[in-house]
Specification:
A: mainly alpha, B: about 270 residues, six-stranded mixed β-sheet, about 40% helix
């Protein structure tokens, strides 16, 4: 097998373009929205209100119990049948955010529970309300604990966004598919796409180590 | 009751608390006059720590009243038995007022690991009591200097020994300027050689006239410091009186057994 290096080289531009214009913004937007959703869902699960807790549990169960691809298709291809027509980008962002929300909610809930009860009490004794103690005392400590598992979620998400190619979002993998279909160089293009994903994830992993170091002091020793 | 200089800062009547079917407090009365130190002693499970936690709103009593004088802002009276209407019930605001007047020093210090020593101390005054930052920092530095930890103000709790952490815990409580200081076995998590420093600080506070309730296993310390010693067992007060009487010549058999056993242990 001979590798068409000229093609590999000339397609690097479109692939990286796909990453910069598609994969990366899709990942970032979905992760940020997903984390906000996850925090809300985690707090609902921890609340004393049984209805809120049950709604949150149901949501997490559905998200974790169904394939991401199916969730994506329900939103993009399914919703129009009941009159909700969304463009590819919003559909993808909604699907990925909901997905991250379900998985990260469990991570955040566990991280909040991992902070010793005495920290809540110390917050209360200096006069803090539950909300103040949560924001000032508990979440900063929970954040440190949740960095490694949330990094996993984030890195998975980078790769999962390739599914958006199936609802016609122009991102890294769709760019590779198009060049491959045109040139018939499937092996070269898909390996090249794999390499670009890998580099992105390597960068993110080193970012994770830095963040963990920075948040070191946030843990009770 | 006529107002005298010994008017109680804290007055507790008939405090009850159960965890499920387990009655932990079965009608506790407690008076702590201004500037006095009351030591609560008793075997584990006697309810002494629960009394303390109820006084800081960390546990919600089932019944009884707690009255706590304020700093010129009048007396706070909480009636935990009043459950007739929503209006009479002890509210979140009442608990906040209780916490504003009392502050707890914990057995395991419970310092905030993500904040420096100085931030630990100023968090309450600045973020909760909304005092001016510069003034709160100055006050915190003065208090830290008093317990010999000023040069540690920018370090994090994990860099400190247990004794140092507990002194920061005490300063954190003092910085809130409470009417009443509550100590929950402040030395029982410490290595023996570090106990002295912490007890020394508490003793100084007593001499300065702070009003305190201390749950402790250190009978020698209770004897030295406490104006009154209360021996609890099974959720009731078995015996109370001046330290010299309760610890040296206890009248109740249960108190005698407890004091004997502790003296043998140490």
């Amino acid at each position: 097998m001979s590798v068409n290096w000229d093609l590999v080289w000339s397609s690097l531009g479109p692939l990286i373009g796909g990453a910069i214009k598609g994969t990366i913004p899709l990942t970032l937007a979905s992760f940020v929205l997903g984390l906000i959703l996850a925090l809300i869902v985690a707090l609902m699960r921890l609340s004393r209100n049984v209805v809120l807790a049950a709604v949150a549990r149901f949501y997490v169960s559905v998200i974790r119990g169904t394939p991401l691809l199916v969730q994506l298709f329900v939103i993009f291809y399914g919703l129009p049948t009941i009159g909700v027509k969304l463009d590819p980008w919003p559909s993808a962002i909604i699907a990925f955010s909901l997905n991250v929300g379900g998985y990260a909610a469990e991570v955040i809930r566990a991280a909040i529970l991992s902070v010793p009860k005495g920290q809540w009490e110390a917050g209360h004794t200096i006069g803090m309300s539950r909300g103040q103690a949560l924001v000032r005392i508990i979440l900063p400590q929970a954040a440190r604990v949740s960095v490694p598992p949330l990094s996993n979620t984030f890195i998975s998400l980078v790769k999962d966004t390739s599914l958006a190619s199936l609802i016609l979002v122009t991102e890294l993998f769709r760019q590779a598919q198009q060049v491959a279909a045109f040139s018939q160089e499937f092996m070269a293009l898909y390996l090249e796409a794999a390499a670009v994903y890998w580099v992105i994830c390597l960068v993110l992993s080193s970012g994770q180590s830095l963040l963990e170091k920075r948040l070191e002091r946030y843990v009770a020793h | 009751m006529s107002p005298t200089e010994n008017a109680p800062v804290l007055q507790v009547r008939g405090l009850t608390k159960a965890f499920g079917a387990n009655a932990v407090l079965r009608g506790i009365d407690l008076d702590v006059p201004k500037g006095k130190v009351v030591a609560l002693i008793g075997p584990s499970g006697s309810g002494k720590t629960t009394v303390l936690r109820c006084l800081n709103g960390l546990e919600m009593p089932d019944g009884g009243t707690v009255a706590l004088s304020g700093n010129g802002s009048g007396q706070l009276l909480l009636d935990f038995g009043a459950k007739v209407s929503r209006k009479d019930r002890v509210s979140r605001k009442d608990i906040a007022a209780l916490r504003d007047r009392s502050a707890m020093v914990f057995q395991h210090y419970n310092l905030f690991p993500h904040m420096t020593v100085l931030q630990n101390v100023t968090e309450g005054p600045i973020k909760v009591q909304k005092r001016p930052g510069a003034q709160a920092v100055e006050e915190a530095e003065r208090l830290l200097a008093r317990v010999g930890l000023l040069e540690k103000k920018d370090t994090y709790p994990f860099e400190l020994s247990g004794g140092q952490q507990q002194r920061v815990g005490i300063v954190r409580a003092l910085a809130l300027k409470p009417q009443l200081l509550l100590f929950d076995e402040p030395t029982s998590a410490l290595d023996p050689e570090l106990v002295g420093d912490v007890l020394g600080v508490i003793k100084e506070l007593a001499e300065e006239g702070w009003t305190m309730v201390i749950v402790t296993h250190e009978l020698g310390f209770a004897r030295q410091m406490a104006d009154e010693v209360i021996f609890m067992d099974g959720g009731v007060v078995v015996e109370r009186g001046p330290a010299s009487e309760v610890l040296r010549e206890p009248k109740q058999e249960r108190t005698q057994q407890f004091v004997q056993r502790l003296l043998h242990e140490f």
